């Protein structure tokens, strides 16, 4: 690993540490936030950018040490496309199961039956 | 489009995807990618029953840029909320009235809302005219709705003309 | 510097996985556990990519891509089960 130029080493380290910090904060949020719907926010957003940072670092590392390497981008694109979908499905499931929400949640639905998933 | 390339942009996307997966631009990879890029759309294009037309490609590019910046900002935003004491957050379930219509624009808007600061799309209303949004920390729900309208929905309306 | 950064990142991701473990055990609902599994697979694929940098080999890439795809399908299937599997009428 000693053939890396100085700037590349600092840049790669920066991206990796940034990504790791975001992923850590996302997992911390998963542990700390009070109810399911709020917990949903932490991992879907933060871990995605966490992996994004690590992937940027990886692209830089392999492009500098070896030939240009972009295939890690596939993982990043895939995660950015799928994160909202899994978040949406889990939110749907959470609403459907009527999981407990913390008291400070304000429910501003005018017609709650509009959003129920029951067939009636 | 033509008979052998029903969706040229999609074929280009498939070719790029194949080259990224191979991680090289050799003759063999390009040949195999081109064959796949022609065959896959021919085989599956009957299943695509959602015709869309991008009217303003430049606005679409701008939208992508705004989205990328907002995703990064949203991460700092959520990180700040997580590191704060847990009793101070004010979550809310908000009804969001839709101005746009069509499956693809609404899907893009819903995904955008999920990826940007503090909001997640939970459900599409039964009549398809509203979204149910869960916001992690909002003081004024009406202002949040207006911001989404101004920032994203107006641009999507411009891009897809719907 | 890079060695330090990699070790630091390994430690942070390890801690993240530990915290996910705690949430996985505490629950309280099935939806929480599915969400946690989703987070665990994203964290572990990041760990795989870091391992690829550490050994400077691209062999781990395919494994990471497969985890990303299968993990997504698994999350969707489990969420669908929650939505349709237990209908409280």
From TrEMBL, chain A:
Domain of life: Bacteria
Repeat listed as a keyword: no
Single Gene Ontology MF annotation: sodium:proton antiporter activity
InterPro entries: PhaG_MnhG_YufB (IPR005133)
Transmembrane among keywords: yes
Protein name: Cation:proton antiporter
Keyword terms: Membrane, Transmembrane, Transmembrane helix
Transmembrane segments: 12-34, 46-64, 70-91
One Pfam family per UniProt: PhaG_MnhG_YufB
TrEMBL record, chain B:
One family name in Pfam for this protein: MNHE
Keyword Metal-binding in annotation: no
UniProt keyword annotation of Membrane present: yes
Cell location: Cell membrane
InterPro entries from the UniProt entry: Cation_antiport_E
Membrane topology designation: Multi-pass membrane protein
Coiled coil regions, renumbered to chain: none
Assigned keywords, A-Z: Cell membrane, Membrane, Transmembrane, Transmembrane helix
GO molecular function, one term: monoatomic cation transmembrane transporter activity
Main location as per UniProt: membrane
GO cellular component, one term: plasma membrane
Membrane-spanning segments: 61-83
Annotated family: Belongs to the CPA3 antiporters (TC 2.A.63) subunit E family.
Full protein name: Cation:proton antiporter
Source organism per UniProt: Pseudidiomarina atlantica
From TrEMBL, chain C:
InterPro entries recorded: MrpF/PhaF-like
Subcellular location: Cell membrane
GO terms assigned for molecular function: sodium:proton antiporter activity
Pfam family, one: MrpF_PhaF
Membrane topology according to the record: Multi-pass membrane protein
Domain of life, per lineage: Bacteria
Sequence intervals crossing the membrane: 6-22, 34-54, 60-83
Keywords tagged on the record: Antiport, Cell membrane, Ion transport, Membrane, Transmembrane, Transmembrane helix, Transport
Primary residence: membrane
GO CC terms, sorted: plasma membrane
NCBIfam families: PRK06161.1
Family to which this protein belongs: Belongs to the CPA3 antiporters (TC 2.A.63) subunit F family.
Name of this protein: Cation:proton antiporter
């Amino acid at each position: 690993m000693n053939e890396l130029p100085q700037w590349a080493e600092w840049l790669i380290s920066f991206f990796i540490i940034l990504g790791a910090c975001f992923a850590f904060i996302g997992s911390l949020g998963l542990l700390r936030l009070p109810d399911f719907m709020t917990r949903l926010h932490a991992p879907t957003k933060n871990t995605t950018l966490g992996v994004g940072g690590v992937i940027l670092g990886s692209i830089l590392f392999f492009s500098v040490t070896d030939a240009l390497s972009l295939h890690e981008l596939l993982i990043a694109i895939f995660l950015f496309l799928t994160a909202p979908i899994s978040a949406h499905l889990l939110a749907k499931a959470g609403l459907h199961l009527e999981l407990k929400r913390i008291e400070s949640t304000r429910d501003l639905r005018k017609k709650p039956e509009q959003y129920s998933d029951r067939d009636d | 489009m033509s008979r052998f390339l029903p969706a040229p942009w999609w074929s280009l996307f498939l070719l790029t995807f194949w080259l990224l997966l191979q991680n090289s631009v050799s003759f063999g990879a390009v040949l195999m990618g081109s064959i796949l890029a022609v065959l896959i759309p021919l085989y599956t294009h009957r299943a695509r029953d959602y015709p869309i037309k991008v009217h303003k490609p430049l606005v679409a590019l701008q939208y992508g840029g705004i989205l990328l910046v907002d995703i990064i900002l949203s991460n700092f935003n959520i990180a700040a909320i997580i590191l704060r004491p847990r009793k101070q957050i004010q979550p809310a379930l908000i009804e969001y009235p839709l101005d746009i219509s069509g499956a693809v624009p609404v899907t893009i808007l819903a995904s955008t809302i999920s990826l940007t600061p503090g909001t997640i799309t939970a459900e599409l209303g039964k009549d398809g005219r509203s979204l149910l949004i869960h916001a992690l920390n909002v003081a004024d729900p009406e202002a949040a709705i207006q911001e989404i309208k101004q920032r994203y929905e107006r641009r999507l309306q411009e891009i897809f003309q719907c | 510097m890079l060695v330090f950064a990699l070790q630091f990142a390994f430690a942070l991701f390890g801690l993240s996985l530990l915290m996910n473990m705690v949430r996985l055990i505490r629950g309280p609902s099935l939806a929480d556990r599915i969400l946690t599994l989703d987070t665990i697979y994203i964290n572990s694929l990041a760990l795989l990519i870091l391992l690829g940098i550490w050994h400077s080999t691209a062999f781990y890439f395919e494994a990471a891509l497969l985890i990303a795809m299968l993990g997504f399908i698994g999350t969707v299937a489990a969420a669908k089960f929650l939505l349709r599997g237990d209908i409280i009428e």
